[in-house]
Write a structure and sequence with these properties.
With 303 residues, this protein is mainly α. It is built from 13 helices and no strands. It has helices at 13-32, 41-44, 46-71, 75-86, 92-99, 104-132, 134-143, 147-171, 173-200, 203-234, 239-250, 254-264, 269-302. The protein starts with 12 loop residues before the first helix and ends with a helix.
């Protein structure tokens, strides 16, 4: 089992560049759907946004760290858990929130604000918690990770596409909507295809080691969703907002996590497998939960 810490996922430099471009296009597509009005919720209902960001950027990394201390996974798997928890919410959360009859406007606001904040918070959270846990801090020393380098990459991959997309949306909402409808499905399909191709070259690694992250990934994701729900409930938000923050906290941008893993950790086995499994599982768990809440809401309306 300890061999997983030294296993590397084969992913060449050309594939990494394409992955960079694909993720940038995904972020550009997300930004095309963001307007200045999405940020007005900070003024109208700041509590909702603050609670959502608190659950996602403060409570989730802290909970992940406590979980790691309790279960003591392999260092590379622990790093993968910390990486996922440090990433912002995934843009698919907006669709899931809408399906669950949650507060879609809040979901969009949290995705927009969270994506901007992640430029600074993701490197900070990842480096802090990875340094606090001795087994993972040793890996950080071995790779000599510089937080500034992560910030630089995130600015290039997330920050610039985000600003360009929002600028186009501000200048011409009609053009932004048309581009968004075209780019979102294409970019996501391209991104998924690249990841599938990359991991298809490493099927033996996944076959031999996926069972080490299977239960951990499911439990970690379930705790993240529950954490978001209970945080919102603790602040006495409505059930509609509880569902929204639960989904936002449980749906992470694991694509960004994979990119950082391939770039700075050379596809370290446990990290990559953990992030990849989360990326698959959070879609399944998020959709199942959204369908459940949508059916529950419809029954209440009928009643």
């Amino acid at each position: 089992m300890e061999q997983l810490d030294s296993v590397k996922i084969n992913f060449d430099s050309s594939g990494l560049w394409v992955l960079n471009i694909a993720l940038a296009i995904v972020m550009f597509g997300v930004a095309l759907g963001i307007s200045v009005n999405d940020f007005k919720s900070l003024i109208k209902q700041p509590k909702l946004v603050y609670v959502g960001l608190l659950a996602q950027f403060i409570f989730l990394p802290c909970l992940t760290f406590l979980l790691i201390i309790i279960i003591e996974p392999l260092p590379s798997i622990a790093l993968g858990m910390i990486m996922v928890a440090a990433c912002p919410g995934g843009n698919i959360s907006n669709f899931m929130t809408h399906l669950a009859n949650g507060n879609t406007a809040l979901s969009i606001s949290l995705t927009a604000i969270g994506t901007i904040l992640t430029i600074f918070i993701t490197p900070l959270n990842f480096h802090m918690y990875a340094s606090l846990y001795e087994p993972t801090s040793q890996i950080l020393k071995d790779v000599q990770l510089q937080p500034f380098e992560i910030v630089k990459l995130i600015v290039l991959i997330l920050g610039i596409p985000l600003l360009l997309g929002m600028l186009i949306r501000h200048k011409s909402s009609h053009l932004a909507i048309r581009l968004s409808k075209l780019l979102k499905p294409i970019s996501i399909l391209v991104f998924v295809a690249i990841v599938v191709i990359a991991f298809s070259k490493n099927l033996d690694v996944f076959y031999n080691y996926i069972h080490y992250v299977f239960i951990i990934g499911i439990c970690h994701n379930a705790l993240a969703i529950l954490l978001g729900f209970l945080t919102a409930k603790g602040f006495k938000l409505s059930f509609k907002n509880q569902k929204t923050i639960a989904i936002e906290t449980g749906i992470q941008n694991s694509g960004l996590g994979l990119l950082l893993i391939f770039t700075f950790f050379n596809g370290l086995g446990g990290m990559a497998i953990m992030a990849a499994f989360w990326g698959i599982w959070h879609i399944i768990s998020g959709l199942l939960l959204s369908f459940y809440w949508s059916r529950k809401s419809s029954k209440i309306v009928v009643a």
